[in-house]
Amino acid sequence: MMSVLLVIHHTPSPHCQEMFEAVIAGATDPEIEGVEVVRRAALTLSPADVLAADGYVLGTPANLGYISGALKHAFDTIYYPCLDSTRDRPFGLYLHANEGGEGAVRAVDSITAGLGWVKATPHVVVSGKPSREQVEECWNLGATVAAQLMG
């Protein structure tokens, strides 16, 4: 049976897009077998999407020191319907912050702790244009969370 990695993202800028594409490339690496990668824009996320997944990657810009309104809306939509059924599932986070991503990281850590999700790999926080190393960190994030869902 295939495991499902759900990538929940808000991708309003070229920098976020570059990070998103690197995460997807890592998650879909040919060496990772038995994992289906499903992409959902944060504003279209449903509780059914989250319940059907075995792990998650979250991607957001930091806006005014907080997660995007789109990702906040996604969490508001799924929090209680998924609260008891998604505990102990792994997640990763990539975040693009032009300045001060700390508040956004704190928000995600707090919400995911409430859901009982388990941080699978260090968060990737990028300011400005992602460097080659930061793009590689995004690739590794996608690959790491996907690999944890293999068989």
TrEMBL record:
Signal peptide: none annotated. It comes from the Bacteria. It comes from Tsukamurella sputi. One of its GO terms (molecular function) is oxidoreductase activity. Gene3D superfamilies: 3.40.50.360. InterPro entries: Flavoprotein-like_sf, FMN_Rdtase-like_dom. Residues 48-122 form the NADPH-dependent FMN reductase-like domain. Pfam families: FMN_red. This is Flavodoxin family protein.
